[in-house]
C-alpha cells in the first residue's frame, strides 16, 4: 500500500473551494443514480423511494431504501473526492489531504 505525501496548509486551503464544489456535484450525481437504481430494483411500484415518515411503507422498506441510498452516496463521495485530490495534486504538485 502506497502512503500519500503530507499536504501543506496552503494546499488544504486552496483545495477547499474545489472540495465544496465536488461535494455538491457528487450529491446531485448520487441522487440521480439512487433514483435510477431504485426504479430498477422496484419495478411496477412507485418510482420514489419510501421516506421515514410515510406511513404506507413498512419499516423494512424504509431501512432498505436508506441503506442503499447511504451506500451510493458514500461511494460517489469517495470517488469524487479522491479523483479531485489526484487532479489537484497533478496540477499543483501538492496533496490536499492529511
**How confident overall, as mean pLDDT?**
86
How much of the sequence lies in strands comes to under 5%
Total domain modules: 1
Radius of gyration from CA coordinates: 18 Å
Assembly state: single chain
Q: How many strands appear in the DSSP assignment?
A: 0
Please give the share of residues in helix.
55-70%
Q: What string, H for helix and E for strand, traces the elements in order?
A: HH
Alpha-beta classification:
mainly alpha
- Stretches with pLDDT under 50, minimum 5 residues: none
What is the overall silhouette? elongated
Distance between the termini: 16 Å
- Biggest sheet record: none
Question: With helices defined by DSSP (H or I, 4 residues minimum), what is the helix count?
Answer: 2
Tell me what the structure shows.
- The protein has 98 residues and is mostly helical.
- It has one domain.
- It is 68% helix and 0% strand.
- It has two helices and no strands.
- The protein is elongated.
- The chain starts with 8 loop residues before the first helix and ends in a 6-residue tail after the last helix.
- The model has no long low-confidence stretch (mean pLDDT 86).
Amino acid at each position: 500500500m502506497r502512503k500519500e505525501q503530507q499536504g501543506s496548509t496552503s494546499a488544504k486551503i486552496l483545495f477547499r473551494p474545489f472540495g465544496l464544489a465536488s461535494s455538491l456535484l457528487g450529491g446531485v450525481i448520487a441522487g440521480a443514480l439512487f433514483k435510477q437504481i431504485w426504479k430498477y430494483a422496484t419495478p411496477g411500484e412507485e418510482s420514489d423511494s419510501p421516506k421515514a415518515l410515510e406511513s404506507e411503507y413498512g419499516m423494512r422498506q424504509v431501512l432498505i431504501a436508506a441503506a442503499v441510498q447511504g451506500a451510493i452516496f458514500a461511494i460517489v463521495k469517495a470517488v469524487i473526492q479522491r479523483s479531485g485530490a489526484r487532479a489537484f495534486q497533478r496540477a499543483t504538485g501538492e496533496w490536499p489531504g492529511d
